[in-house]
Amino acid sequence: MHRYSDWLTADDRAEARRLALEVLFDQVEHFTAEGLDVGQHAYAGALRFFATGSLGDEPHAEAVLRRYLESALLTAYATRRLLRSIRFSSTVFTHGIYVPWGIVGEVARQEGVHVSTWNVAYRKRRFIFSHDDTYHHTLMTEPREHWQDLALSANQERELMQYLRSRREGLFDWIVFHQATLQDAAVIARHTGIDTSKPVIGLLTNVSWDAQLHYPANAFPNMLEWLVQTCEYFARRPELQLLIRVHPAEISGFPPSRQPILQELRKRLPNLAPNIIIVPPESGMSTYALMTLCNAAIIYGTKMGVELTSVGLPVIVAGEAWIRNKGLTHDASTPAEYFEILDKLPFAARLGEAQLARARRYAYHFFFNRMIPLPFIQPKAGYPIYQLKLETLQALLPGASPGLDIICDGILRRRPFMLQDASPAARQLAGAS
Q: Stretch 102-126: mean pLDDT, rounded?
């Protein structure tokens, strides 16, 4: 057990305090120290603390952000001294963003120490592990060869579709933000006033404060700017209907958002065009049922793109959604690219047979291969959402748990954190063994 106080000097504390006070407030997000992006993680942490997508309206924003920056610097100093004193071969920690985890990762990578990050997956008793960075980044950049040649058996495809259907109620998940009470698409169309004779384009938001990191491929600086410009665009396309579904986790997540996206949208656009329909976060309408009414979906950072492409719905990506870069979606990296894609709406058809098969291969990879099972971790009410249920230490021995073996092999030998690897190298290795 190592404590910060064991690895920090009085000079470290004075330097961290000095820098945290001297950096201009509007420059904190981009502040680096000795090649470490400490400001990015401090800023993301402050957004999470306030549960907002920006700090402009928070009276204590500057004081809190500067405390986060000071903490980030202290974490960097302590971690660097620790790693240089004790030559660890590997580090393992949750998330890989915010303070302190993101800073630990920054220092470890700079010091040449292997990084493994983990987070609770959506499916019960399963976890997502990644090499070198947070899964928020790695799921967008992992090699396609890990999944694109995955041959799904009839049973695997049936298992996948059964699971995707179950997500409407969250039967097999331990992260559920919404329990829908209205699933009938026809009834939903009547309730929302959707004109079924005109094309409907769905738009799905995400929680504004969640994992606010820098993504170079984003077409817009933030989700609000994307939403505002999209609404302005559809105001000029009255032949289309824009159906906005606000993420239910704005009110059901932890912590609940203190900057509701609709409130921010109405500040910028107090009078929305009549062809824009909004379903608020508290609505009991099923997001899945809403999307069945749509010609296409537009997303920024939600994982729903994985599910929607698996049922053939065309998806446009403007932000850091995990379905980006998979050869399945219309990905925009600039506003110009984004609006060129919107100009093609409505699309003439849903995903073709080959694209649908590809989408399901990726969905299986995402939900079944990347989400590693640990049967001795059991769901429980409250926080944390799981507990250890271990009857005997024999359950931890090699061969007793395939999931644990994969995790250990990943940490110790840098093997991929996945149950089934479809890459040629993995197939060759399997044949040799």
A: 95
